[in-house]
Specification:
Structural class: alpha/beta
Shape: elongated
Order of helices and strands: EHEEEHEHHEEEHEEEEHEE
CATH class of the largest domain: Alpha Beta
Strand content: 25-35%
Helix content: 10-25%
Number of domains: 2
Largest sheet: 9 strands, mixed
CATH superfamily of the largest domain: Peptidoglycan recognition protein-like
Radius of gyration: 21 Å
Number of strands: 14
């Protein structure tokens, strides 16, 4: 196993079940209090700081014990990681925009957290799901464990599309997609430098052309077992399950692409765009 940002010396043998992601609500540097509560912290300059408690200290939590208390009622077998940021932040609402405070979370911190999470998931054999890799602000909804109005780190200060409660689930899914992408390369697929499409946790090459997004047809049909029924210069008829769907088609440099908005309708999925990773998501 090749770790990305952590050291094997910092990962003792333990049975762990989940990674919970936070922000500290403080400045860009880890304080003594921060190190007391989290296993690993990402400072404003991207440095990863080890907390005072080892991961193993949270394998079995007892009241009054010596462990990293990062999440109310959910510390046993939970690894707490945090970005040092968001001092003075106030949550956005329908009528008020996010106020990220004097130390807003940086995109580089968020992405480094995903690498930390990937190391932890790989080392402790933790699957990447909504119940096992999640933000503090998702704990109450995803695990049913009441929290005290926590919303970290579910708002992205650098992207106005992801700053309000209605978008928190999308932020969590984007984070998990980054963790999955870090865990292993996509087999037999070269990701286009322009864009990529994420369908059912699988990435495929994509292009952006004429204001529309298009996904590589052959790669998707091969992966999912769809049947190409008919191909013309402008359309591709694809059998998905028991139904055949006519999708807009283009040929770009010898590779065929279908329009993703058509494919989303055929699969009964929503389509969204993540500008940070240049990923079109169908989910």
């Amino acid at each position: 196993m090749s770790l990305r940002v952590l050291s094997l010396a910092d990962l003792p043998a333990a049975k762990m079940e989940r990674v919970i992601v936070h922000w500290t609500g403080g400045p860009y540097n880890a304080s003594e209090l921060d190190r007391e509560h989290y296993h690993f912290l990402v400072e404003g300059d991207g440095d990863v700081i080890k907390g005072d408690h080892s991961v193993k200290s949270n394998e079995v939590v007892v009241p009054g014990g010596n462990y990293a208390a990062h999440t109310l009622g959910c510390n046993t077998r939970s690894i707490g990681i945090s970005a040092c940021c968001m001092l003075g932040a106030q949550e956005g609402t329908t009528g008020r925009p996010l106020r990220a405070g004097s130390n807003p979370m940086k995109q580089t911190q968020w992405e480094k957290l995903a690498l930390v999470a990937a190391d932890l998931c790989e080392h402790y054999d933790i699957p990447v799901t909504r119940e096992t890799v999640l933000g503090h602000g998702e704990v109450q909804k995803n695990l049913g464990i009441p929290q005290r109005q926590k919303w970290d780190p579910m708002a992205l200060p650098w992207d106005t599309n992801f700053q309000k409660p209605a978008n928190y689930a999308a932020v969590g899914d984007m984070f998990r997609a980054r963790v999955r992408a870090a865990l292993k390369p996509v087999p037999n697929v070269e990701i286009s430098p322009e864009a990529r499409v994420l369908i059912r946790n699988e990435f495929f090459p994509a292009i952006l052309e004429d204001g529309s997004s298009w996904g590589a047809l052959k790669a998707m049909t091969t992966k999912f077992g769809w049947k190409l029924v008919k191909l013309t210069a402008k359309t591709a008829t694809v059998q998905i399950g028991a139904e055949a769907h006519v999708l807009d088609f283009i040929n770009d440099g010898g590779t065929g692409y279908v329009q993703l908005i058509d494919l989303a309708k055929a699969l009964d999925l929503q389509i969204s765009w993540d500008a940070i990773s240049r990923t079109i998501k169908l989910d």
